[in-house]
Amino acid sequence: MRRAALVLLLAALIWGSMIPVLAALAQHYDKWLLSWLRYVLGMPVLWLAVLISTRPIAAPRPLQFGRLFRLGAAMAVFSVLYTFGVAHAHPATSAIVLMCGPIWATLLSRAMTGAPTPQGFAVTLVLVVTGGILVMLGTPGRVAGGFGLQGGEILLLIAQLCWSWYSIRAQQWLSDRGQIALSALTCSVASVLLAVVCGVVWATAGIDLPTRAPTLPEVGMMLWIGVLGVAAAILLWNTGVSLVGVPVASLFSNSAPVFAIGIAALMGSEPSPMQLVGGAVVLVGIAQLQIRQMRGARS
């Protein structure tokens, strides 16, 4: 549990850092290009890690390209639906749907594998979802208005189900190759499919191509969202899922907004009191689950 907590919190830290970094890059670069570029930059790092990592002792099963295509497609669909969902939903309702991710992950995991709910999961779920919503609602400058549905919420829900499905099936189908190879294979397929999506968008709706060379800070931010945001974070996520399962891993991923406000504060954006309270509630929820799991392991 300690190892799982470490890798999943690191993944959440990286994903949380991407929120302000992507927001800064999106001011000058097309969002579709950024989504594809993340995977293109992350792939070489993952394959380099595959080359220098220790091979599994037992020979892995032969690759089934139908399964590999479905895993990559799930990642690509998640990326596309997430982009459209956030763009066509009220920020408050988006936050609620995203913070309920562990619920969808638990239901899907039960349906697919019959996995039992960990002890203390319900308490942690309530605390993490509540704290996450407080973090989102307390964002300075948040768009005001009601919580009416705008259509993007269902896209966000489907996106989360796609990501949970990928996380479960990836462990069932590719875990014998190790978490590094698993991540490299699926990210490679997803990057090809996202390139196709970007090509379709370019041919139909159009994509704003850069009109100038990126500055040095922008190059650093692009490497951050690719090398860390894809290569490192997905590897950490898959490793955490292999240790504790998708439902518990999803609880840890809900701490990403907490890290996001901390990094945004370092970049000059002061968090609100509601955000600080929400972040504390999220961390308390995760801590109490880890304590329960560690006590259960000792008994």
Write the layout of secondary structure elements.
Elements: H1 2-25, H2 31-52, H3 65-87, H4 91-99, H5 101-113, H6 121-137, H7 152-174, H8 179-204, H9 216-244, H10 246-253, H11 256-266, H12 273-298
Order of helices and strands: HHHHHHHHHHHH
Helical content class: over 70%
Report the oligomer.
single chain
**Number of contiguous helices:** 12
Largest pleated sheet: none
Distance between the termini: 14 Å
Whole-number count of domains: 1
Description:
This protein has 299 residues and is mainly α. 77% of the residues lie in helices and 0% in strands. It contains twelve helices and no strands. Helix 2 runs antiparallel to helix 8 and helix 5 packs antiparallel against helix 10. It is globular, with a radius of gyration of 19 Å.
What attributes characterize this protein structure?
299 residues; mainly alpha
Quick structural summary:
This protein has 299 residues and is mostly helical.
